[in-house]
């Protein structure tokens, strides 16, 4: 059965925004699985996610401390509709990222990461797909914030869509 996904990272609530954009909350409410690649900043946002989502796969980021680090791992893994998923906040420099991550995550089909706030969607020579959903609240040098929706279906990730969000 197809599984709907929302991928997000670098939410930085309440430092960069008071709340998540309405479009992201609507997508979260509709999703079967939500993936968050770290930099929550406040444990209250994690609590809200846990109250709302059907299934959460999440990690802590470099700006997450205290209870966030106690409750969330550095690396999370899950199998979703035949897709072997790993989530991590930081992957290092963009140069050589695909090869470096393919070596670090050899038994993984999809790696979701964050940290840079820059949307990213590439595939390593090994077939590992790397997706950074960007940030919905802190666009940095990007034209707008972003998050991703996708569908996991019988071992295939399809309908990967980067959604722009207003400031």
Strand-residue fraction? Answer: 25-35%
Strand order of the largest sheet: 3-2-1-9-10
Q: Write down the CATH class.
A: Alpha Beta
CATH superfamily: Metallo-dependent phosphatases
DSSP summary: helix tally: 4
Report the oligomer. Answer: single chain
List low-pLDDT spans.
none
Q: What is the number of strand segments?
A: 10
Helical percentage: 10-25%
Q: Which structural category do the helix and sheet elements fall into?
A: alpha/beta
Instruction: Report the average pLDDT across residues.
Output: 96
CATH architectural grouping: 4-Layer Sandwich
CA-atom Rg in angstroms: 14 Å
As for the CATH topology, it is: Purple Acid Phosphatase, chain A, domain 2
What are the main properties of this structure?
10 strands; globular; Purple Acid Phosphatase, chain A, domain 2; 19% helix; alpha/beta; 167 residues; 5-stranded mixed sheet
Brief summary of the model shown:
The protein has four helices and ten strands. It is an alpha/beta fold and 167 residues long.
Q: What would you note in describing this structure?
A:
The chain is α/β, with parallel strands linked by helices. It has a single domain, classed as Purple Acid Phosphatase, chain A, domain 2. Helices cover 19% and strands 33% of the residues. It contains four helices and ten strands; from the N terminus they run E-H-E-H-E-H-E-E-H-E-E-E-E-E. It has helices at 22-30, 43-52, 67-71, 97-104; strands at residues 3-8, 33-36, 56-58, 75-80, 83-88, 110-112, 120-123, 129-132, 145-153, 156-165. The strands form two sheets. The protein has a five-stranded mixed sheet, covered by helices on one side. Helix 4 links the parallel strand 5 (83-88) and strand 6. It is globular and about 40 Å long. The mean pLDDT is 96. Residues 5-152 form the Calcineurin-like phosphoesterase domain. This is Phosphoesterase. InterPro entries: Calcineurin-like_PHP_lpxH, Metallo-depent_PP-like, Phosphodiesterase_MJ0936/Vps29. Its cofactor is a divalent metal cation. It comes from Geodermatophilus obscurus (strain ATCC 25078 / DSM 43160 / JCM 3152 / CCUG 61914 / KCC A-0152 / KCTC 9177 / NBRC 13315 / NRRL B-3577 / G-20).
